Amino acid sequence: MQDRGRGAEWDALVLGGGGAGLGAALTLARARRRVLVVDGGEPRNASAAHSHGVLGFDGSPPSVLLERGRAEVARYDGVLRRGEARAVERMDDGFLVAFADGGTTSARQLLVATGVRDELPDVPGLAEQWGRGAVVCPYCDGWESRDARIALLATDEGGVSRALLLRQWSTRVVLLTHDAFEPSRAHRRALEARGVEVLPGRVEQVLSLGDRLTGVRVAGERRTVDRVFVTPRAVPNDALLRMLGAATTERGAGVFVEVSRAGATSVPGLWAAGNVVDPSLKVATAVGDGTEAGAAMNEALVALDTEAALADALARTG
Ligand SMILES: Cc1cc2nc3c(=O)[nH]c(=O)nc-3n(C[C@H](O)[C@H](O)[C@H](O)COP(=O)(O)OP(=O)(O)OC[C@H]3O[C@@H](n4cnc5c(N)ncnc54)[C@H](O)[C@@H]3O)c2cc1C
Questions:
Q1: Distance between alpha carbon 310 and the CA centroid of its chain, in Å?
Q2: What is the distance, to the nearest Å, from the Cα of residue 99 to the centroid of all Cα atoms in its chain?
Q3: Which of 48, 194, 218, 230 is the most buried (most CB within 10 A)?
């Protein structure tokens, strides 16, 4: 008979069933923990037709990996539900979580793997192309853009290094500064040396013909491009972590909840993994992040189980 924690309904509750949450849930379920995954069903890459650079799943629709992951969790008696966690509070021996449908549940350990919301620059036509002609990640869509006319829509001077990176996939890269910054002399020299054109002025529109992105309009002029790379502002879905007082840190991309390598937050029993704490993680690394957190959560439970067993033994023997 496995140890069953006292009080709480679940050993581990995983909020968010993307790669990070499912990676954790699989590890926990295989460690014979009672695991519940509650997922809103809106992974970050939902608008993309294919996932790239994901070993074993390269070129598959994002849903394929998630469907397989859910089946694997269920195979070890992990339970999966659709839902949205709205509020959380600490109990003596874990956490009490409330859902949008009015239900509640409790767990000894809680993992938040709720991802981010991408806030695109306010350019007409951009949102309609998101995940198709307008993309975020050179390693995910660089190959598919090879030798194409690529525009990098910059939102700050980090656009310079991203434009130089994209030059790896195509000789036809144009950096759209979008009035966000003025490249320094050193930056201009580097861009020129690599043959990256700099186009100043505000990007007024992303142009499409039917489903296909055809260009951009910058300061009144139309420029034909095949692909626009853009770095949205990644806003973490971390309200639940903040509700519990988890410490945060500045990460360059913004303020994110601080975690150890295994995903421990500053609040005992509260864990976080995937894009919600690191927006740069890709599918494979988000799965890895969750997998590490799942193992660490199980080990935290082992420590609690041992502590409780020792206390019981002491009570019996006086
Ligand atoms: C357009 C686009 C294309 C991409 N293409 C690639 C690619 O080709 N290859 C690659 O490796 N990476 C790609 N990525 C990155 C990839 O999307 C992320 O690395 C990955 O989704 C991160 O996984 P995650 O589990 O951290 O978060 P997500 O996959 O975003 O999962 C988070 C889950 O939590 C749920 N959730 C949120 N709030 C709650 C709540 N309160 N209660 C319950 N559930 C909640 C959401 O509905 C969602 O299902 C792409 C990203 C974008 C934007």
A1: 39
A2: 21
A3: 230
- The enclosing H or E element of 114 equals none
Helices (H), 228-278: 239-243
> Which residue ranges make up each domain of the chain?
10-118+233-317, 121-230
**Ligand 1: centre distance to CA 40 (Å):** 11
Length of the chain in terms of residues written = 318
Choose between 6 and 27: higher pLDDT. 27
Residues 6+ apart with CB under 8 A from 7: 91, 92, 93, 94, 106, 108
Cα three-residue angle 296-300-303, rounded to 5 degrees: 140
- pTM comes to 0.95
Q: Are strands 104-112 and 10-15 parallel, antiparallel or unpaired?
A: parallel
Q: Does the C-beta of 43 come closer than 6 Å to ligand 1?
A: yes
- According to CATH, the topology of domain 10-118+233-317 is FAD/NAD(P)-binding domain (3.50.50)
The CB of 127 under 6 Å from ligand 1? The reply is: no
Do residues 299 and 273 make contact, with C-beta atoms less than 8 angstroms apart?
A: no
Residue 64, CA distances (Å) to 15, 39, 69 in order: 20, 16, 8
Tens-digit pLDDT profile for residues 50-96: 999 999 999 999 999 999 999 999 999 999 999 999 999 999 999 99
* Residue 47, helix vs strand vs coil: coil
SS3 of 278, please? coil
Say if ligand 1 is within 6 A of residue 282 CB.
Answer: yes
Q: Across the chain, what does the average pLDDT equal?
A: 96
Residue corresponding to tokens 């409330």: 98
Q: Which CATH class is domain 121-230?
A: alpha beta
